[in-house]
Amino acid sequence: MAAGCSSYARTEKAQTQISFGSSVARRGLWREAAFRFQEAIEREPNNARAHNNLAVALEAEGEFARALAEYKRALELDPNDTYIRRNYARFAEFYTSYTRTTGKATGGS
Amino acid sequence: MARNTKLGARGVGRVVALILVSMLSALSASAGVAQVKLKLPLKPRLPLRGNERIALAPFVIATEAEKARDKRLQNVDLQAEFQRFLKKQIEKKTKLEIVPVPPEVKLPTQNLTELGRSTEFWRALGGQTGAEIIVSGSLEFRVEDRSGYKTEEYVSPIDSRTYYRQVYVEQTGFLFDIVFMVFDGHSGEKILQDEFKDFRQTGGRRADELQGLFENLFSLENQILNLFVARDREAERYIFTD
User: Fold this and answer.
1) Which of A107, B203, B225, B241 makes a 20 to 30 Å CA pair with B156?
2) Interface pTM (ipTM) of the complex?
């Protein structure tokens, strides 16, 4: 069964992974969502949407330093996307205050 | 006949509304974006096990001199109110064990910098109470009369033109500033210092000062508790759905 799932996952396109990841994300299953978005990135490393979604999932898991890297990558790939820019701005505001109060630039990991 | 025409107009309106709704739904679906709510996990600021014995020492009151002049501050026992609030929050939302501080304990200085360096005093207090961590710092609470003239837009009912007029607005501001210092009860060393500020403004000149104080405190509650325990912070983000 696991082998079947894994083989199924390998053949799926990035878009399908994003779609499935976003549906589980909306149910609050962020770990599974992060896995799906990571899978999407493996298939399409330059997919800005996948990097944005992974950043959001990592934020939800408290992996703030990794989320920052993913947001930056998403912006690098698509600097004009309004949603990615908005997400990054909100995250930057939070992360600045978080690192100021904790006195460290790592988070979660 | 007239009735039929009216119904027809209504029907057309409904059809237009339906088309608009379906167009909007189609647009949002094709946009492939969903807004999600996150609860960002915030780690506690202090590296604690979670069940330490904690002593709440007195705080330096920064508004003591002003209190003598301001009648409204005379009604507020800031030290007692804050200690009560902090004790209640720690008891309710953490597993820390609060150990009592003898009422005769007086701070060795009212100077915050010197207080942070009073290692001997904190070590002795730790030994006396059995506390593993001790909390102290300073508190400042100000009630500010923010009443004054403000410019307001005004549309005249006579000529429908927009004018600007000066109106007198009565407002009261409440400023609360806490400096937290946390000491190691064994070594007496300061392990953390942080400052939290809050400002609230309410309508009316005679707004109640105690209510103002608690408005400030409740808005700082999450930040204060995050010193000791993990907290969540709500946030909204966008994810792409395709």
Assistant:
1) B203
2) 0.85
A59 touches chain B (CB under 8 A): yes
A91 in contact with B at a CB cutoff of 8 Å? yes
Please judge whether B238 and A83 are an interchain contact, meaning their C-beta atoms are less than 8 angstroms apart.
Answer: yes
Is residue B72 located within the same domain as residue B91? yes
Other CB atoms closer than 10 Å to residue B140's CB: what's the count? 18
Q: Which of A103-107, B126-130, B141-145, B209-213 has the lowest mean pLDDT?
A: A103-107
| Same domain? B9 vs B124 | no
Tell me how far CA of residue B118 lies from CA of B79, B104, B105, B129, B170, in angstroms. 21, 18, 14, 17, 44
Task: Please give the residue range of the domain that contains residue B6.
Answer: 2-31
Do B233 and A53 make contact, defined as CB atoms within 8 angstroms? no
Q: What value does the mean pLDDT take over residues B156-180? A: 85
| Cβ count near A80 (within 10 Å) | 8
From chain A, pick out residues whose CB is under 8 angstroms from the CB of B36: 25-26, 56
Pick B237's closest partner by Cβ from A59, A101, A107. Answer: A59
- Summarised one tens digit per residue, pLDDT across range B18-73 is 555 444 444 444 469 999 999 888 888 888 888 999 999 999 998 766 666 666 67
Q: Do A23 and B242 touch (CB under 8 A)?
A: no
